[in-house]
Amino acid sequence: MDLASVSANLRLGRNIDECSARVIEIMQTPGSGPFWMLPSVCAAFSGKELLSQEARNAIRETWRTAYQLRGDTENHFAMYYTMLYLMSEMYPNELGDTWYTGKSSDENLAESRDYLIDWMDLTTTIGQGEFNPTHYLGEYAIPMLYLVSWAEDPEMKMRGKMTLDWLFAGLAANTINGVLRGPNSRTDDSSVTERWNSLTSFFSWINFGNCPPTKGFSWGNYYGIVAENYEVPEVIYRIATDRDDSFEQRDLKRSRHQWRYSDFGKAPIYKTTYIADDYGVGSYQGGMADPIQTHVWDVTWKTPDPRGLHPTMFSIHPYSASKGMQAYFNVRPDTMVTAVAAEGKPSYDVADKLVGCSPYEQVFQDLDTIVALYDIPKGTRFEQVNGFFSKDLENLSEDQSGWIFAQGGDTYLAYYPLAPYRWEAHMKYSRLPSTGNGYRYERVDSGSQVLISPHVKNGTILQAASASEFANFEAFKNAIRDLPLEFTLEPTPRVRMRSLRGKDISFEYGSAPKVDGKATDYSKWKLFEGPHLNAEKGSRKLEITHGRLSRTLDFNTLSITDSINP
């Protein structure tokens, strides 16, 4: 049994003696860091009245002797400080020599509380850093649920509940039949193509019931153990499951904190989402959000059963640079690029990768039209653009007009590469057993394709539409061919076009994009703006609406207000 199984048995009142024995055994070789702290806290609270005294003492002793690393990411800090907070409440009024921190219970509580409130303030004023993550949603949702379940301070319980509402409102507005789509501050080599294959599908399943969970639930087991203590509000449930009209949502987020090579610590991220009945289009403006695992934009289409499918299309510049990582990490630079592959990010320094952002990519989205421009300096590692084309596409054709046409589900797609290209097989990463530290992978042909365009001045145009809008696929292709389109790559990439929605788009690399002659002003971007989620920058207040239902989360007063509008 691992500590998830131990905790589940304890919650069910089963196998108590075996659980106590297993806890004692596990505590003989404790781990370090948030991913050990969270399971041990789950076992400690699940077994607070059931574990033997020896088992409870074993847990307490590890929190004295086993030094815990705080980690270096936003999700690490959220887990670390929530777990330290809860354990310090469980064992109050104890001196510093009883804690690995060397600080007293009161000092641990104060530090943890201060960090968690500061993080919530950042999230509710300038946006979350690890926004829309395909896996790391759990590293926020589970700690917040533990505050709801086990915190003694009513304020921290309420903060946990309100933050869960905040997180799941974002999930509801960014999914299609429960499947999360881009952009993503952090994702991985599997879920960037097989969009369903991520921990967020577990949360869609348990909250909205509109998506199958991934096999075994993974980290979600630690949520499921106390899931009965939180019920997603009706208004959020309806945003996820009841949609009659297409909608556009604009959000303000922030980058991972930059320590070097930047005039500011947290760069603003301007995120756009367009959800139609058959597909979703999402993006942010390009540039660096996280140095390794960011996914900048995509079109993702709806499928009856998402398992095993690659229902998405996008392009990236496969940027790899020690300097790029030095901006965000404070470890020695000489090992960064080689070490990252051993930590479960195997594609970082690989030319055909499909995960990552680049300082040389700029993106603009208007409704369901994407324009991505690339101006890559000579000498940059990997002077190319990679476009992903799914194995599940139908009617794929390269047209004499320069457009590449395809159909995904009930979605018609038109992809225009601005520079010459070639096709390569998409080689996915398959995990192999590992006998030591680190990860091992083999690469296997997934059946999908990658469009490789080996040119530093480059770009992609992508237009999506529902099949129901046209008499047939040929009618869609004719409509796309008839759209005015001009572009140049020298001296900098520039596009002028009319979208399928009748918008005149003008976008030059390094300049503000224009729609119908009006320049986009990102300085006016709100924290949330759309039919379902609305918040002013700096407000600490989110309005969640669907039809007549409304819920207001106000972190200024720590209050939740529900209403039914006329």
Task: Label this structure with key terms.
single chain, 14 helices, about 575 residues, alpha+beta, globular, 9-stranded antiparallel β-sheet, about 30% helix, 6-stranded antiparallel β-sheet
Descriptive notes:
The model has no long low-confidence stretch (mean pLDDT 97). The protein has 566 residues and is α+β, with helices and mostly antiparallel strands. The protein has 14 helices and 26 strands. The strands form 5 sheets. The protein has a 9-stranded antiparallel sheet, with no helix packed on it. It folds into 3 domains: 3-239; 246-529; 534-564, no CATH class. The longest helix is centred in the N-terminal third of the chain and has 21 residues, at 105-125. Helix 2 (16-26) runs parallel beside helix 4 (53-65). It has helices spanning 3-12, 16-26, 34-46, 53-65, 74-90, 105-125, 137-150, 154-173, 199-208, 221-224, 234-241, 322-326, 336-341, 473-481, and strands at 175-176, 179-180, 247-254, 268-275, 279-284, 297-301, 312-316, 361-366, 369-375, 385-389, 394-398, 404-408, 411-417, 422-432, 440-453, 457-466, 485-488, 494-498, 504-508, 514-515, 518-519, 528-529, 533-534, 541-546, 549-554, 559-564. Strand 23 (533-534) and strand 24 (541-546) form a beta hairpin.
